[in-house]
Give the backbone structure.
Amino acid sequence: MNSPRWLDADEQRAWRAYLRMQGRLTARLNRELQAGSALSLADYEVLVHLTDNADGRLRPFELERGLQWEQSRLSHHLTRMQRRGLVRREECEEDGRGAFVVISEEGRRAIAAAAPGHVATVRRLFFDGLTPEQVAALERLATDVLARLDDNNPDDDPGPGDGLS
């Protein structure tokens, strides 16, 4: 059995700093988004995925894949968003079994109202402190890590699921 390749001191500091940054940044973005719009960061992510699609609708398995959420988490979250009028469910006429998640007019109004403040917060907390070279390095780093994740875990793709059940 091979012994683990432990992180060296520099790697350990970098990894722990990344985890602290990611956790604190996500928590702060969520708090500020909710304070300014009554949307959670999770709501915002769902609405972004829906508005990125021209007709504002996706199959639940497409949302699962895009958000990298488990089916049960997506299902519960969409149920809460449905109750608040942000999304609705539409049956899929092509196959008669599946459904679409569709952004409602209320959801469109909510994300349109929230987006300017959220983008300003992202800029203030993250991008305003970076040079163009750091932004380019960040993109390269993220792209490289994402490519390794794709290469090392092809079964990571969630299968088709209803997501609203």
User: Anything to note?
Assistant: The beta strands are 57-58, 87-91, 99-103. Residues 7 and 118 are 35 Å apart (CA to CA).
